[in-house]
Amino acid sequence: MISVEGLKVEFGIKPLFDGASFVINDKDRIALVGKNGAGKSTMLKILCGQQKPTAGTVSVPNDTKVGYLPQVMILQDDTTVREEAQKAFADNTRMKERLDKMNQELAERTDYESESYMQLIEKYTTEHERYIMMGAENYEAEIERTLTGLGFERSDFERPTSEFSGGWRMRIELAKILLQKPDVLLLDEPTNHLDIESIQWLEQFLAQSSSAVVLVSHDRAFINNVSNRTLEISCGKVIDYKVKYDEYVVLRKERREQQLRAYENQQKEVAEMKAFIERFRYQATKAVQVQQKVKQLEKIVPIEIDEVDNSAMHLKFPPCLRSGDYPVICDEVRKDYGAHTVFDHVSLTIKRGEKVAFVGKNGEGKSTLVKCIMGEIPFTGNLKVGHNIQIGYFAQNQAQLLDENLTVFQTIDYVAKGEVRLKINDILGAFMFGGEESDKKVKVLSGGERSRLAMIRLLLEPVNLLILDEPTNHLDMPSKDVLKEAIKAFDGTAIIVSHDREFLDGLVTKVYEFGGGKVREHLGGIYDFLRTKKINDLNQLGSQPQMMAAPKAATKAAATTTSSASPSVTPEGEAVLQKTLSYAEHKELQKRKNRLEKAVKQHEAKIEQLEQRLKELDELLMQPENASDMTMVTEYTGIKRDLDEEVERWEKASEELESLTQ
């Protein structure tokens, strides 16, 4: 579909990339990856024709339509949301106008037997059939389906685009591109302006689309769910991996290990040649051999190694004061902006050490509740911040508060304490401020670079309540890994507002869902929450029973689930209950409880065993040589079925045990 041959781009002495050759085929879902500054956005601009390469060719057939969504674009504000989306169907609109004009002419003319009249009928029939085949009659339904999928309400359709924030206007542009149904879709960080629900909708849309897709994204879950091929820009070259992103990560690690071994062997060979030349340079009897070594040395092409992966570097928060048991308690909290109620009847308790996520569509009040906790805005109801709380707050506008006259290094050096000061360069490198970048003044940094710098500052301050509002929007994957590991090791409490599922996975143990003016609590991780949403209608989510934790988390969450899912028995009530039970009844009850507790533990052990085997089979099946091994596939299917049945038995035993403990 698109053929790239010998592509070279130069912005300075060293080319951004050179000799890049690849083909984009029908149905390709390509993840374009590489460190920041490697040239990913430049590659997309070249593919869509917005930028010319220094050398090489990009061949696009004349009948191939390319759709391109850049990270930043100039947006118009003179139309409504619906009118802006309708621009995607400009060809259909023009065709409809021609059809209406011909229809009007047919109605007015009376020369029914003339040749020109018959030609007009034939032309109208042909155009109308083409119009119907294009599905043009249904374009309004397509517009509504796409806009609602990207998070717009139907009441938003007639609102002027000028009333929406930049992020929402970017969603309109994305809707226009998707509605145009291009043959090749080029998307540069499309998830930066989407919430979790919209990202999932976009995943499904791309999976069902007939378009080829080239995608740049730092959302690991999204890019892995969408991709079936990975193009990596590294060391000025483009390497083509015919696998999805997760498999690419494994192959890339193996490739880098091979590069390191080859590099070490080459360095050893070079050192030996140099030693020989130095030793025998002035001996006439060795002059021929020395010249041969010099020529061999000149012919050696240095082996380049991919950039060092800093994601394994561990960064810890500095020690902080122990906070009270309940850092945040909300009781019937309500917030209104004029006649609009953002949320009401919000009652929640966040315990010390918990990592919780605030999720929901944009505009449902996540950042508003954070501002209430910070004391930045007034509200009604009771909101108590616990004893000894030191809050570290990362807002979306945090980057604007940095001192523009300091360098990157000075900004961090002023807040670093103790041994951390010895590792400032390593920390800056992990967040893409290595080498000369650390000497830049803050005032010359881009918005994304400032956000990353503000994040590093926060990581080094002694706090015990961490509040992060969309912390990953401007971080690449290695930097997000560093931040995630730091939060997991954090002794304090964390509230994270984010739409990045991969970042939240394994990090949070409780999810608060914002929607419809309510805040609902869901126990478990982010994928437990998402599984529940797929089962139930989103509008009825608040009325559904509280979700059950995943099997692995069951033991940890059992006590919490019991206390939150059912009324607890008071000590007085327990005493009355004991009196009403005979000794025999009490003994029988205890036997049943013991049997059920034993059964629950056995089920949990079996589940863990089955999950471990599934993980092993997953790793084996990801290897190309095992991909078609039907024995493994059959075993995988059987274990998956056994696991589902075991989980059902575990749930039944757990529910029965809960009913006895009430």
From TrEMBL:
Domain ABC transporter: residue ranges: 2-260, 328-541
* InterPro entries associated with the record: AAA+_ATPase, ABC_tran_Xtn, ABC_transporter-like_ATP-bd, ABC_transporter-like_CS, ABCF_ATPase, P-loop_NTPase
A molecular-function term among this protein's GO annotations: ATP binding
> Which keywords, in A-to-Z order, does the entry hold?
ATP-binding, Coiled coil, Nucleotide-binding, Repeat
Q: Which parts form a coiled-coil structure per UniProt?
A: 586-660
Hey, which family's this protein in? Belongs to the ABC transporter superfamily. ABCF family. YbiT subfamily.
Q: What is this protein called?
A: Probable ATP-binding protein YbiT
Q: Which organism is it from?
A: Xylanibacter ruminicola
